[in-house]
What does this fold into?
Amino acid sequence: MIRIIIASFLITFITLPLASEQGLDKQMEDIKQSLIELKRDLIVLEEDLLYPASTQVSVFLSMDVGEFFKLDSVTLKINGKELSHYLYTERQINALYRGGVQRLFIGNVKQGSNRITAIFVGEGPNGREYKRAATTEFEKTFEPAFVELKISDSTAKYQPEFVVSVSS
It folds into this structure.
């Protein structure tokens, strides 16, 4: 399909009547714009083919406050298989504190019951090493699934909280 589009595009370009230099410049700009639009459409098509909605899962990380926990790394597992591991710089952590959201993973999982586990490593209260895991099971339907890993402070317990929420 892509070859047909490109071939028809090239045939159109070759058979364009030669006009003045100004007319040719206009035609070249139109062609350039068409190529940009074609590339955008191909990227969207590629994502739809690689990550169909029926199996797509996206996992995001967010933080709130950060008084009781300083993040060093996150390991993400789905159905026991490690999918990603991130080490954070001070700059990335500050971006998360300011409300940033990081996409940890986008990929495919089987429909039905799935288990997601996130392992958080960092510095907890009183400067001690802190390692906690948050796990949840979710039912994957035909719709894309969105998973939020949220680190927040529990002022009642003076401890960080790690919450996993899933939405479709």
